[in-house]
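P.,

For your records, the input lines for the assembly:
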Amino acid sequence: MPAEGMLIRIEDVEFSYEAAHTLDGVRFEARPGEFLGLIGPNGSGKTTLLRCINGLLKPQRGAIFLEGKQVSKMKLAEIAQVCAGVPTDIPDDFNISVEEYVYLGRYPHIQNLWWEEKEDEEQVEKAIECFELEHLRRRKLFEVSSGEKERVLLAKAVVQEPKIMLVDEPSAHLDLKFKLEVMERLHELSRQGITVIVASHDINLLIKYCDRVIIMKEGHIVKCGSPHDVMTAELIRDVYEVEAVVMKVDGEIYAVPKRPLKEGEKGCASKTR
Amino acid sequence: MILGSASLLLFFIIYLSTGQVKLGFVESMEALYGYLTKLGQPTTELTTAEMIVGEIRLPRAIAVIGVGMGLSVAGAIMQAMIRNPLVDPYITGVSSGAALGATMVMLFGITAIGFGVFAIPVAAFIGAIAAFLITMTLAEASGGRALNYVLAGIVTGTALTSFVTLMLSMSPDQVQGPIFWMFGSFNGIDWTQALLIIIPTMIMGIVALLYARELNVILLGHEQAYQLGIDSRRFRQWMMVLSSMLTAVAVAFVGIIGFLGLIVPHIARIMVGGDHRLLLPASIIIGANVLLVADIISRTITGSELPVGAIISLIGAPFFGYLLVRKGREYAG
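Structure tokens returned:
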């Protein structure tokens, strides 16, 4: 039953690269302004799922709807107007400046052939101010630090004026402070009405900020719900094959990994799935 | 940009007043004026000076400008497509294909196909396009990524070059013609050839300019370009065709002029930055300038003509090194 007002609806999506199933029977929905976290070990299908949502990969079975429109029937430009992707890293060969890079985010909206319009300029100026990039504006991409790069990436995604932001591993190269800062910013964006889906290995960051987390293993969704409801030591043991403690401090929950499971222990762990 | 156009005009005038026949500057300009006012009249009306300037130097200068523009734009596009600044327009094997075509005509004299004096350009053009089609087929069959194009181009180029080598070693007494062709030369360019170079080059250059913004987006890589709404694989195919056509036109008439398509986009990038809306026009103007200067030098430095490709490398390499050292810090590619 299609629910009203759902921004993203994913129905029984199945995707496989050549031989292996990477997504199998994946289904969930996301509301406007929802902050979703994708959790799962390497190869569990997080990135593949993100790529299916923005049309980069085409699922063999099932369907994905953005604002009620089926992704496989949308033009690339249409998808780009709704959905922005935030990659893990920026290519920094070819000397493009920070400002030029942010302007590229306007591409899906630019109508004329050559120069940007007033509105594009306004959007870019707003993003540069909002993400505190003024002093970096003329710098080349390879001259900015990892923490600054993350802000540049977000600024470019924001000028795209998306309704959905797909963020793949935003915190990979960042230290503690920047990790938190990025998540704060993404959370802020979701409160402004953008649906944000973040895939990350940093479980604690996701359970701290996300409205809901989706836990994946081997292309299936194992659990989906609010972090407080779904995060348990058993779940982590089952999905990551790691013994962990989940504890509550000041009303927030944290997962602390202890040790990887040994060969004999894994069998009983996956049986509980 | 204005500076570039001004220097282009200057070099253009210098070009017209230099050459193997000594004509002074004023003399050359008078001859040019005379030639232009007598346009449409039979060539028998022209003085010797007017013949030299109007029928030899003017078309040659136009051809030089066309080739300079074409190779530079093709290089800039190719570097963006492959996302590697060390790439030149010959990367897809077009030069080897053209060399094979030209060598076959020169050695076996397949002039009977009816193109007369155009036998070599036509064969070279066909060879260039055929080589590109082989490269493209291989690259697309192996996944169509940028790296596939580089590898397929190297395979195709190497294979075709070995054919040329075999043919040359089997007819050692006729080696000089093909070898000279492979160095690249503007010798003997007439009006028909000049127009056949400049007109398609201009048209394709303008087409390339229309895609400047897309070229910027492509720099971000396949996935990000796709997320901004560009089917980057389709776009890459189309741009590969465009830049190979540009290269094929140049190579067909004047042979292989190396280094230009590699170095000019670099110089342009150092001067105006990585935005293709500035980079492409800058490449066009710088390319035309550099090749004009190189051809002036190749015609005047000794009594006979020197291969212009070698001249380009000779002046280009130190200049490029200088730029790299001066500006290298702010320049990633």
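Two observations worth noting. Chain B touches chain A at residues 80, 83-85, 210, 212-213, 216-217, 219-221, 223-224, 226-231, 269, 273-275, 277, 330-333 (CB under 8 Å). Chain B has one domain: 2-330.

Regards
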